[in-house]
Amino acid sequence: PQRLYLLSHMFAESTHKRSWIFTPADLQARRDAAQRRFSSTLTATQAKAQLQSTEEDALKRHVVQEMIRMCKHIPPAAMGNVATHAATYLLRFYIENSVVKYKTRQLQLLALVLACKACEVNILLEAHLRALHGSADDLGFIRATELPFLQALHFHVVIHTPFRALRGHIVNFNAAAASAGVSIDWNALSARAETILLAMITTDAMLLYSPSRIALAALRSAAREAGCGQFVDAQVQSFAAGAPGTTLLAELTALQDLTAGVPAADPAHIAALQEKLAAAQAVLPRPSGTDPDEDDDFALPAVKAEPIEFGEHSAAKRARLPDA
Questions:
Q1: Which end of the chain is less enclosed by CB atoms within 10 A, N or C?
Q2: pLDDT at site 203
Q3: Per-residue model confidence as pLDDT tens digits over 143-152
Q4: Residues 85, 118: contact at Cβ < 8 Å?
Q5: Rounded distance between C-alpha atoms, residue 37 and residue 189, angstroms
Q6: Mean local confidence (pLDDT), 299-315
Q7: How many alpha carbons fall within 13 Å on the CB side of residue 62?
Q8: Residue 269, number of CB atoms within 10 A of its CB
């Protein structure tokens, strides 16, 4: 269908696809290398207090989940796109940066503010902080670190979201259902798929799959819950362009398993990890604030150089970033 073709073509030409979609092996290798670089900067005493990689992974997921819950003051029509942008910024940032090194709440606020700008949701910074009980320190952090955080993302702030792709899929599946005389409550199915999408974007899905695939996997999960999974699977096979429908179904199953395979967070476990995080941050040296090129700058992922998509800051001097 023409709508999906145009969305797919836009994604194919984007920095999102060219620079931020990885294979699982490449993604893990980048994270492992970043962890080694961070560990190499620590003294023996500091290293003993640090988190294991599995603990960091659990905390990162929790940080993204909490950030999505922080979006409740966003207008409902924009909430999905804003949440996806902010979550993806954090996921990209944490590829190269340890969760130990920076205050998670302030990064959440910063990602949310930038997401609103990218999605053209006009909420004043001060209004964000009032809604989220932010402080003057949070305000100062956001203003001081917006530019270097953008630089860590290579100024690639345009995110192709699965929520937009979901609407395109719903239009096409609705038309197919009408032609086949199949009655489906698409409003209810769409609402459930959007809820599933919010869970999916807290995983590595946005770093591994296209937004169209993610949206289709969420719709497929919702359809199975609603008892119309066979119809959706049949349409997926008929819509598969240039690839066997069974191959696409297998890919969607793997994507669905990515979310289903993550256990629900245990509040006691998260609380224990947060205590350990605080202890790990406590033994790190405080920044001196004198050298903008010190090692505690945000790490920059090695991605292919692309045109700046947000602002004209390519020649801006790197600003030093306060640690936790």
A1: N
A2: 92
A3: 888 998 999 9
A4: yes
A5: 45
A6: 41
A7: 22
A8: 13
Mean pLDDT of 86-111: 91
Residue 50: what residue type? Q
- The pLDDT tens digits for 121-166 are 988 888 888 888 888 888 888 888 899 899 999 999 999 999 989 9
Q: Which helix (H) or strand (E) holds 96?
A: helix 76-96
- The CA-atom distances, in angstroms, between 17 and each of 23, 100, 151, 170, 181 are 12, 28, 18, 23, 37
Mean pLDDT across the chain: 82
Reported in sequence order, the residue ranges of 219-265 that DSSP labels E, i.e. its strands, are none
SS3 100: coil
> And the tokens for 170?
């719903």
pLDDT of the residue at 313: 33
From CA 157, how far away is CA 137, in angstroms rounded? 25
Residue with the bigger pLDDT between 21 and 299: it is 21
**If you search the block for the tokens 């949701």, which residue do you land on?**
121
Q: Give the torsion sign (CA, 22, 25, 31, 37).
A: negative
Type of residue at 271: A
Q: What is the pLDDT of residue 304?
A: 45
How is residue 71 annotated by DSSP? Answer: G
Contact, 46 vs 279, CB < 8 A? no
Residue 111 has, within 13 A of its CA and on its CB side, a CA count of 31
Q: Does residue 21 surpass a pLDDT of 60?
A: yes
**CB of 194 closer than 8 Å to CB of 166:** yes
Which residues, other chains included, contact 281 with Cβ-Cβ below 8 Å and sequence gap of 6+? 100, 101, 323, 324
In one-letter notation, the amino acid at residue 317 is: K
Rounded Cα gap, residues 306 and 14, in angstroms: 9
CA atoms of 300 and 203, how far apart (whole Å):
21
In Å, the largest CA–CA distance within the chain is: 70
